[in-house]
Specification:
Largest sheet: 6 strands, antiparallel, barrel
Number of helices: 6
Shape: rod-shaped
Oligomer: single chain
Radius of gyration: 48 Å
Number of strands: 14
Order of helices and strands: HEEEEEHHHHEEEEEEEEEH
């Protein structure tokens, strides 16, 4: 009786009170959470907002190697300032050095061959050839004297026709040997044949070209800075294999940081509002108090799919963007390449009509 009379009514009253409290508490407005960082605000009454990425004024240069191989030295570290032509890293060059030595030896042999042909005839060879000519002349004179003697016999019965023919043939052979000796002398004095010289000269030029190619390959194994720049990343270590060609992660990343660029993505829906030379202001993502004026550089007149994502929950990823480049001098600002920037670009107010439509429909 006691429970029914007192306890049950009290529980009912408590339940009603809890329900009333819960209903009132759920109707209270939820206080929005304070943002981690104060959002950036535009200094322009009409503007186009874009997400920007800081990059070097030369763009970020992905440095690679033209020839693959094992890295034997890395001469720089992140943050180093280098001049154009400074050595960044080197690749194992032993095989190419051996090739250079082989090509140098081949060039020396070709040059010696050409020099030998060019110096013909040798001075000591001419007297010997002239002596052979004189010997042939003497042999011819003897053969002719013998023939004249045999032909001068008045009584033809004293000699045989066969012997007379032998004397005649001997004289003809002596004449032929003299002509050959004279021809050999003239050929010797004429020196090397011109086509032979041309072939030898071509072989020298070919050997020079092959040596130059080997020396070029040797020089290409030393990777140098293309411009005055700052090293942003070093992804190669001594002993690692450096692969040639474009890589997902470059061996080194460099760029000129004296002047920085902000590559700003503008949604294609707002692209028509952008005008060359428009004023712009950037604010660092995470600290809107660090803001700086931007100088217009150029508009890249090709709308591309969006690639740079900011992580905003309301960000559209299935859109295309117009890229606008602005420049600024970092000075003492804590701004780094690759950092995200909120960019506000001064633009004309939105209008439901194009300028031409406004003139036709005032």
């Amino acid at each position: 009786m006691f429970i029914r009379k007192y306890i049950v009514p009290l529980l009912a009253v408590a339940g009603v009170g809890l329900a009333i409290y819960t209903a009132r508490a759920s109707n209270k407005p939820i206080t929005p959470a304070r943002p981690v960082a104060e959002p950036a605000r535009s200094p322009f009454p009409a503007f186009v907002a874009g997400a920007g990425i800081v990059e070097a004024s030369t763009q970020n240069i992905a440095i690679g190697t033209p020839l693959p191989g094992i890295a034997t030295s890395v001469r720089v570290k992140v943050g180093d300032r280098v001049k154009a032509g400074d050595v960044l890293f080197t690749i194992d060059e032993r095989a190419v050095k051996a090739e250079v030595q082989t090509r140098r030896a081949a060039l020396a042999a070709a040059e010696q061959t050409f020099a030998r042909l060019s110096s013909l005839p040798r001075p000591e060879e001419v007297p010997a050839a002239e002596a052979r000519v004189r010997e042939a002349e003497a042999a011819l004179s003897d053969a002719r004297s013998q023939l004249e003697m045999w032909e001068g016999v008045s009584d033809k019965r004293a000699i045989s026709q066969d012997e007379l023919n032998k004397r005649r043939y001997a004289a003809a052979a002596a004449q032929a040997r003299l002509e050959q000796a004279r021809a050999d002398l003239n050929l010797l004095k004429a020196g090397a044949w011109k086509p032979d010289l041309e072939v030898a000269r071509a072989q020298v030029e070919s050997a020079k070209a092959q040596l130059h190619a080997a020396e070029t390959d040797l020089d290409r194994l030393t990777v140098r800075a293309p411009i005055d720049c700052t090293i942003l990343q070093v992804n190669i270590r001594v002993g690692e294999f450096a692969q040639a060609g474009p890589l997902a992660t470059p061996l080194m990343l460099a760029g000129d940081l004296n002047t920085l660029h902000v590559r700003t993505d503008v949604d294609e829906n707002d692209a028509w509002r952008i005008r060359p030379g428009a004023k712009a202001r950037g604010s660092l993502r995470g600290n809107s108090q660090i803001a700086f004026d931007l100088t217009f550089v150029r508009i890249e007149p090709y709308v591309i799919p969006k690639r740079s994502l900011t992580g905003d929950s309301a960000e559209r990823v299935d859109t295309r963007v117009l890229q606008v480049l602005y420049a600024f001098t970092p000075g003492s600002l804590p701004v780094y390449a690759g950092q995200q920037v909120d960019v506000f670009i001064e633009a004309a107010p939105r209008s439901p009509h194009t300028p031409s439509e406004s003139k036709e429909n005032p």
